[in-house]
Write a structure and sequence with these properties.
Blueprint lengths: L3 H13 L1 H14 L1 H50 L6 H10 L5 H30 L6 H27 L3 H25 L5 H27 L11 H19 L1 H8 L2 H16 L2 H18 L3 H29 L3 H5 L6 H8 L2 H17 L3 H55 L12 H8 L5
Helix pairs in contact: 1-2, 3-5, 3-6, 3-7, 3-8, 3-9, 3-11, 3-12, 4-5, 4-6, 5-6, 6-7, 6-8, 7-8, 9-17, 10-11, 10-17, 11-15, 11-17, 12-13, 12-16, 13-15, 13-16, 15-17, 16-17
């Protein structure tokens, strides 16, 4: 029988070897804030995904492919415009507070003021653009209701969630997203039960009511939990806010402009079919989004010390990200044969589009980790330039193949564009990281001193 000392010796030897080092790293990761935050956000996003999927099935199945195509085309264009709502306030508050928590009250005030200035102008732009870009038969009231929901309410929710994210209060951030999802599914059930008609216009009224209530509750919770804003607006942040909002707009355009484009190149029914497939594929990215959301503030902390520190953090996260992306791909393939049965006969064809969209989560996580390196190390404009080129590529591919292949062609164009985006982004990251000295990224405002004093600890 082996003695206790022998067992201890074997254990010590195991700990000193490569396997022991791997176990030690695993234990360190499991105890880290990143793992805990990612776990909380994964559960939260999973619950939100379930609610959103249920709501999506109710709404899309009830109104049919053509009406859903009209609604989702308007929503896609409003989502692009919503990137400018708040003028990058959500990313500004994460960057500023992650480097100095005392800045939260002023950062909140700046975000609210930027929101109040930008949203009314964006409503007007939406009312002008939708008839020109999507379909002139779409009622202006539908455009206005969706604009209020997605440009104002959704972005206000994102900003309040970002305030919690900046101070590492993931439960608060998770609660903001869950509350809106609960309200929207409640609205969908009411719409089906008591709605006089079940077209895009009638759903828009329930949609905006749920969105307004969700936005109001999120702001009330934010002020209760984090305190009221200190109304000293940092107007100097407008320049960085523009870069952040343009960066978000280009990425949202990259992921949404193809819906109204498919409607223009084909018809609203095809747009609805493709939008349904893309919505399922996007839902399968939930584990990936949870990881990226939880680690985003860490990139800003790492970026204080220079781009190589952000790069090392991205490399450490890449294996886990690709693994979660592969999980998302498996989910998409598993959902492919089920989608037409869940959504109804007018959605026959989504299964092929879903199989083509299966690699999307992997390309998405590879791209986003590289893009976070650029943003956190002071190269936001470079990320924006990359994303500005990608919608043009996607539009060109759609223009060539959508008229012949419909939703399947749109899916192929989306996957090809995301793969190209990931490759170009990491090429630029390599140039940024290895072609210059590892210098400290510029930090705007009074947080620079605080960030330098605190240092950075990526993991």
């Amino acid at each position: 029988m082996t003695s206790r000392s022998a067992w201890q010796g074997m254990f010590q030897k195991d700990r000193s070897g490569p396997e022991g080092a791997s176990l030690a790293k695993l234990r360190k990761y499991l105890r880290s804030g990143i793992f805990g935050n990612t776990s909380v956000m994964t559960v939260s996003m999973g619950l939100r995904l379930f609610l959103q999927t249920f709501s999506f099935i109710i709404v899309a199945g009830t109104m049919g492919a053509r009406q859903f195509g009209a609604f989702v085309s308007v929503a896609a264009l409003c989502s692009i415009l919503s990137a400018f709502a708040g003028w990058g306030a959500d990313q500004l508050v994460v960057r500023r507070v992650a480097r100095g928590s005392a800045e939260l009250p002023r950062a909140m005030a700046t975000g609210f003021v930027f929101m109040s200035i930008s949203c009314p102008l964006l409503f007007i732009v939406a009312l002008v653009l939708v008839p020109l870009v999507v379909d002139s038969s779409i009622p202006w009231m539908l455009v206005l209701l969706v604009a209020v929901s997605d440009i104002f309410c959704a972005r206000l929710n994102s900003f309040t969630a970002a305030c919690y994210q900046a101070v590492d209060r993931v439960f608060g951030s998770a609660g903001v997203g869950l509350s809106l999802a609960v309200l929207r599914i409640f609205a969908a059930c009411l719409w089906v039960s008591i709605g006089i008609s079940h077209d895009a216009m009638s759903w828009a009224h329930y949609y905006v009511a749920a969105s307004l209530l969700g936005a109001g509750l999120s702001v009330w919770r934010q002020w209760r939990d984090l305190g009221a804003p200190v109304w000293k607006v940092d107007w100097a942040e407008w320049r960085d806010g523009f870069h952040f909002s343009l960066q978000l707009a280009t990425f949202v355009a990259f992921g949404n402009f193809d819906k109204p484009l498919v409607a223009a190149l084909s018809n609203l029914a095809t747009a609805g079919l493709y939008a349904a497939a893309f919505r399922i594929a996007a839902a399968a990215m939930t584990p990936v989004r949870a990881l990226l959301y939880s680690t985003y503030p860490n990139f800003f902390r790492a970026g204080v010390a220079g781009p190589r520190h952000s790069f090392r953090l991205a490399i450490r996260l890449l294996p886990a990200g690709i693994g979660l992306g592969a999980l998302g791909s498996i989910i998409i393939m598993a959902m492919a044969p089920l989608a037409p049965h869940l959504l109804g006969n007018s959605y026959v064809g989504t299964q092929t589009a879903l199989l083509i969209l299966a690699p999307l989560p992997i390309f998405y996580v590879i791209y986003t980790l590289g893009a976070d390196v650029l943003v956190s190390s002071g190269h936001t404009s470079m990320r924006t330039l990359i994303q500005l080129a990608m919608p043009a590529v996607n539009i060109l591919l759609c223009w060539i193949i959508v008229p012949r292949y419909g939703a399947i062609g749109a899916a192929a164009a989306s996957v090809a564009s995301h793969a190209l985006l990931a490759a170009i982004t990491w090429l630029i990251v390599g140039i940024v990281v290895f072609s210059r000295n590892d210098r400290v990224a510029p930090v705007a405002g009074p947080v620079a001193t605080q960030a330098s004093e605190k240092g950075s600890s990526p993991l």
